[in-house]
Amino acid sequence: MVDFETVRALRSTGPVCDACLGRPFADRSFGLTNEERGKGLRVALALADDEPYESVDPAECWVCEGLCNQYDTYAELVAEQLSDVDFETYQVGTRVPPLVEENDRLLREDAGLDPDAGELFKSEFNREVGKRVGRLTGAEVDFGRPDVLALLNVDAADREPSSHAVEVQINPAFVYGRYRKLERDIPQTEWPCRECGGSGVQLGDDGEEPCDHCGGSGYLYEMSVEQYVAPHVLAAMDGDEALFHGAGREDVDALMLGPGRPFVVEVKRPRRRSPDVAALEERVNDEAGGAVEVEGLRLATHEMVERVKELDASKTYRATVEFDEPVTEAALADAVADLDGATIRQHTPHRVDHRRAKLDRERTVYDIDATLEDERHATVEVHGEGGLYIKELVSSDEGRTEPSLAGLLGVGAVVTALDVLDVRGEDEPFDDPAYLR
């Protein structure tokens, strides 16, 4: 039943357009816009009071100050701003002038209503502009994590808003895959020179001169997996910046073989979100010239970044080992049997203690096998818990790792070559379809 007394009270506050009149009743009926709801209330009241129906132009409305006339204008501005952006989902947000927000509440208070009754102006403006953006662009609204967010800087005094009234936020896009590193001495990510801080120059007797440590390049290594992969993804998505996230990292001098190591490239402000990933994969591999390969490139969700960075993973390694003294097959077999399934205590290795906290860690050897090539050389394959230091498992790192292959054999041992054969989630796969698009 229509509450005529409340409608009269709202109307008596001053000129109120249909949308502003209907908004306080938004929670009492469904399937109508506030403008339709307000018009219906105004018509019903006119019939009840035997008065002529008279509408109010939003331009004369003391509540919205004409803003309810500008849904189409703001939607067109949003569509124009996004005309060169590839997106499937969107969301609209609004910065409402404080005076209009205050008017919206005063309207209700002056009529004896709860100041939050029905729907507030900001919500209506978001929805009405958003519906029009969807019709203009063919995209779907997403209130979770949309591809793009349009923020409207609404100004009641601006009767002809222009592009400055819309801020467009383009959320990152993500490409997931696995990489193989087929040459040694390639880091996973860029490695700036620590001597010159990546500048490539140092101070000499005659002023600035090329850094001796890096030869003036600014990097300790000429190329990285990141440099082989990320620029191609960035170009394919026409973005502003690309960030490379790997599921852990192998040593610079280790190969990454087998199915490869999972990674995600995150592209900031992409203008294209759906590149041809098969063509992209082919381009990366052709340009890398055999140093690095990628496979299984897929578009991914933003959750995949944290999954790749945080998901517990086990690794399988193949190590080429050299002994200081001759070793027998029986002695090697006994040592391997002691390590199979063992819990290993490792203090932070010497080689990384300048960048890692000095801690004792315990990691498990899930499976280990060794083949003696000759009395001074062996090939060892280890499947271990994530974080297990393989070089130290072999060498003992001056007793920092216990037990170790060297300690059990009673001879010095060192890894001369290391290959990573597999990286897999401990309890679940990295490439869960729920995180791929």
Could you explain the architecture of this structure?
The chain is α+β, with helices and mostly antiparallel strands. The chain folds into three domains: 4-170, 2-Layer Sandwich (THUMP fold), CATH 3.30.2300; 173-189 and 224-309, 2-Layer Sandwich (Alpha-Beta Plaits), CATH 3.30.70.2510; 313-425, Alpha-Beta Plaits (2-Layer Sandwich). The chain is 28% helix and 27% strand. The chain has twelve helices and 16 strands. The strands form three sheets. Strands 5, 8, 9, 10, 11, 12, 13, 14, 15 and 16 form a ten-stranded mixed β-sheet that branches. A four-stranded mixed β-sheet has the order 2-1-3-4. Strand 13 and strand 14 form a beta hairpin. The longest helix is centred in the first third of the chain and has 17 residues, at 121-137. It is elongated, with a radius of gyration of 33 Å. The two termini are 49 Å apart. The model has no long low-confidence stretch (mean pLDDT 93).
Give keywords:
alpha+beta, THUMP fold, 28% helix, Alpha-Beta Plaits, ten-stranded mixed beta sheet, 437 residues
